[in-house]
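haha ok so turns out i had the wrong file open the whole time. this is the CORRECT one, sorry everyone. sequence first:
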Amino acid sequence: MLYLAPGGLNAETAYGSVHIGMETTSQTDTVKSATKLWGEALGQGRMEECGAGPIDYARFSNGVTLHFQDEIFVGWSTSNASSAGFANGLTIGAPVIDIEAVAGPVETFESTLGNEFGAEDLFGIADGPGTKAEIEVLWSGISCVFR
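then structure:
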């Protein structure tokens, strides 16, 4: 199984857990691991107009998009239709407060994107203000979000 994690992805294999870390794992290895556990990418391409510079991506059928710069894994994002989750079962639709179990204290705030929240290398948008609101979008690392 391949799970979302702050700062990367966690793979559960027959040999134990493996962390696929951002800034340390190649695009090739990250996509290979994701393909093995999530199936072939639905699409791959490049987003030229991102604040952090151009980002290459691989989008999977479970609603996860992996982000790469200079052939290195630098982030992931999920949509509100994502079926992917964390090893503890946390998924889109859970209350924002549940983020604390995987990323520590969470802070909520209003932005031009709406009701945002952030914790240790994990960020997102909720359907309302405060920590009781439901998670709609999640990302970790570098993403292509415009404020």
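Helices lie at 27-38, 100-103.
again sry for the mixup
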